[in-house]
Amino acid sequence: MPVTARHLIIQGRVQGVFYRNWAVALARDLSLSGWVRNRRDASVEMWVEGAAEAIEQFIAQAHEGPPAARVLRVIAQPVETEGFVGFEKRPTA
Q1: In the chain, what are the domain boundaries?
Q2: Does 3-82 carry CATH code 3.90.380.10?
Q3: Rounded Cα gap, residues 68 and 33, in angstroms
Q4: Please, what's the largest Cα pairwise distance for the chain?
Q5: Which pLDDT belongs to residue 2?
Q6: CA-CA distance, 64 to 66, in Å (whole number)?
Q7: Burial annotation 10-49 (CB, 10 A radius, 16+ → b, else e)
Q8: Phi and psi torsions of 92, nearest 5°
Q9: pLDDT per residue as tens, the chain (93 positions)
Q10: How far apart are CA 17 and CA 67, in angstroms?
Q11: Mind telling me the catalytic residues?
Q12: In this structure, are residues 37 and 88 in contact, taking their beta carbons and an 8 Å threshold?
């Protein structure tokens, strides 16, 4: 199964609502690899790699996020894979 990757920016009320922890759990459930981090502009940034179908499921659910989140926009750009293993939470950038 070919591996693809997407770079995501999630905008809205997505910090301080456990969005990153939710993203880590979902990515692991979908067998995706990559990372998630808060950005200083109050958005959340992610890099996800894995099966295209799993990435599409992840992006669809990213529009909702955890219960306390209020997602306004999800920007998803195709990127080259980097071979991440596992999915981790990274420091704010």
Answers
A1: 3-82
A2: no
A3: 24
A4: 36
A5: 78
A6: 7
A7: bebebbebbbbebbbebbeebebbbbbbbeeeebbbbbbb
A8: -60, 140
A9: 678 999 999 999 999 999 999 999 999 999 999 999 999 999 999 999 999 999 999 999 999 999 999 999 999 999 999 999 999 999 999
A10: 8
A11: 20, 38
A12: no
